Amino acid sequence: MTPTESPVIFHNYPQSPVAEKVRVVMGIKGLSWRNVEIPRLPPKPNLTTLTGGYRRTPVMQIGADIYCDSHCIIRELEQRYPAPSVMPTSDAGLLSCLSRWTDGALFELSVKIVLGASVDTLPAEFAQDRGRLYLGENWAEGLKRANAELPHLIAQLRVTLLWLDNQLSDGRPFLTGTDAAAIDAQMYHVVWFVHGRWEGGALLLREFEHAQHWFDRVSAIGHGTQSDMTPEAALAVATPLDSVTEPGVADHDPQGLKVGQQVSIAPDVNGGEQSVQGVLRMANTESIAVDRVSDIAGSVCVHFPRAGYRVETQ
What we know:
By secondary structure, the protein is an alpha/beta fold. The protein contains 11 helices and 11 strands.
């Protein structure tokens, strides 16, 4: 197998809302892909062997190139499989800006609703892991506060559903018009999460007729064609291959990054997560990638977005 023949391998688990976002994008594009199911909770040894310690879901693997974070994954899928495009209008830049909100503040709101509504029934280990990840060091207090403020949080989400409903009120099937786009997947994954994981989610959505029909249409897109793959088989795909990423740093990098430099990369939030250490291979305005060597997977190149991630030089 050569790098260009490598399948899209998607490391995820079925209940992950962020993975659902990418699965919808693969459905829009009609892709065939390999499904590697990972644990919902750490440790995730096969995944972190590939990523160098990054534990979030999902991760995409194509050959020896490993893509972390859904922004990075969707951008790479659009570059490799441009038709049909998930940026079908001339508003790609504006939609990318909006995605920072859907995947940031809006998704965090949905997490507070889901966790806050189920605070008394959450398994302790799951509550601690997700609470620390999304609510910071004082996660236990954050969960209590979310529970106490649940009516306020739901009121905030209703505003977004109204905006969504208004956007669709002219009869368009999807948010930007006749064709499904990345922003549909990005909005859908938040609604999908609340709809499926909070007992009041389905009833809330039914208040907004246009949004409900849109939700059903996006759901009907599906996920493309998937076939299961074991974690061990995914590691074996990477082992004999080299990254296809061209080395280089774009002009005007504000951190003065250079190819061959030792760097560490981590989400720019206080989530208690391990940073990924590596040798800088590529950096531009949107993306950064590092080379690293795993005892099991061999040499891999791990990619991250610049937005939302902190790069430290060593």
